[in-house]
Amino acid sequence: MSAQAPSAVILVRAEKFVPNPATAADNAFQRDLPDGQSDEATSAQALAEMDAVADALLAAGVTVHVFPDEDHTRPDSVFPNNWLSTHAGGYVAVYPMYASNRRHERRADVLEMLKSSYRVQTIIDYSGLEPDGIFLEGTGAMVLDHVSRVAYAAVSHRADTHVLERFCADFSYEPMAFEAVDSDGVAVYHTNVIACIGTDVALVALGMIPDPDRREQVRERLSVNGREVVDLTEEQVREFAGNAVELCGRTEQGRKRYVMAMSGRARRSLRPEQVEAIERSCEIVAVDIPTIELAGGSVRCMIAGIHLDPRPVVDPEPTATAEAIDDDPHTADGQDVAQGLG
C-alpha cells in the first residue's frame, strides 16, 4: 500500500452548511448563494452532497468515519482537512486557522476517535500561534508528498513559511514554498486548489507559479521518482480539477485499488489525455457537489485522510464511559474540549 493514499478518511456532516462570509475576502473560488435561495435549502442540498461523497467512497472500499455537526456557528466544518492531518508513525497535527469563526471546528471527539481506533503516539498542536496572527491551514495550505517527504505550499496569509518550516522540522518533510497567483495577480488562498499528489500521478497548475525557475523546480521535484505530472490550466483549477485526493480502496486480485476522488465538475473539466494519465494508476471517483463548492472548496477539502495504523479489533466488556462515547460522540464535554484547543 502506498504511503500517499490513505485507506480511511474523516468526513464531517455539517447540518448547517452555508458559504462562510468570514472567508469570502481572500477566497477567489467562493460564491454567493443563488438569489432567493434560503440557508435551509442550502443546508439540505449540501447534506445530500456530503452523503453522496461518503457513499461513493464506501462503494470504492474506503473506510469512512462520519462526524455529525449541528453547530450553526461552524459554516465551514465540512472541510476538516484544514485543522487536522495524520501521519505515519502515529503522529497527528492540529493547525492554526485564519478565520476566527473556523477555530472551533477543532474537535476533541475526532481526536479521541483517532486515539481509540488507530495508533496515535504524538499530537502536535500549532493552534496556539493564532493570537500571533500566524497560520497554516493543514492540508489545504500544504499539499504533502508522503513518499518523497516534501511539503508544497503556495505562500499566503493562510500558509506562513515560518510555521511551514516548523511543521517540516517536526514531521521530517522538506519545505517547498512558492508564490502562486491567478491571471489577475490574486494569490492562491490554498495550495490544494492548484495541486494534487498521488502515488504515480500529480495534478498541478504549473502556469500559476509565476517564477519560471521555481516552476521548474516544482515540476522536477514532483517527477523525480517517475511520477507523471499532469499540467492543469487556470480554467481547470477554477473548476476544482486540482482539488482531488488519492485514496486506497478495496483489494482486487491481491492488489490494492487506488482511486482519485474529485467532484463531477472537476472530472468534466479534464481533457481525455489527462483522464488517461490519471487512470493509468487510479480509478476516478467523481461526485457532483455544486452546493458545497459555493464555499470555495471541493472534494479534497472535505477529506481528512488517516495515515495511521489501525489498532487491533477487540471486543472488551462494555463500560459506562465507552457506552457514553458510542451513544453520542458529539457530547457537550467533547465540544468544550475541542473549543479549548483553539
Can you characterise this structure?
With about 350 residues, the chain is an alpha/beta fold. It has a single domain (about 10-335), classed as L-arginine/glycine Amidinotransferase, Chain A (5-stranded Propeller), CATH 3.75.10. The chain has twelve helices and 15 strands. The strands form five sheets. It has a three-stranded mixed sheet with strand order 2-1-15. A three-stranded mixed sheet has the order 3-4-5, with no helix packed on it. A hairpin with a 4-residue loop joins strand 6 and strand 7 (about 150-155). The protein is globular. The relative contact order is 0.19. Mean pLDDT is about 90; it is low at about 320-340. InterPro entries: Amdntrnsf_FN0238. This is Amidinotransferase. It comes from Ornithinimicrobium cerasi.
List keywords for this structure.
342 residues; alpha/beta; L-arginine/glycine Amidinotransferase, Chain A; 3-stranded mixed sheet; 12 helices; 15 strands; 30% helix; globular; disordered C terminus; Amidinotransferase; Amdntrnsf_FN0238
- The largest beta-sheet arranges its strands as 2-1-15
Distance between the termini: 34 Å
Individual helix count = 12
Strand percentage lies at 15-25%
* CATH class descriptor: Alpha Beta
Organism: Ornithinimicrobium cerasi
InterPro entries: Amdntrnsf_FN0238 (IPR014541)
Pfam families: DDAH_eukar (PF19420)
Protein name: Amidinotransferase
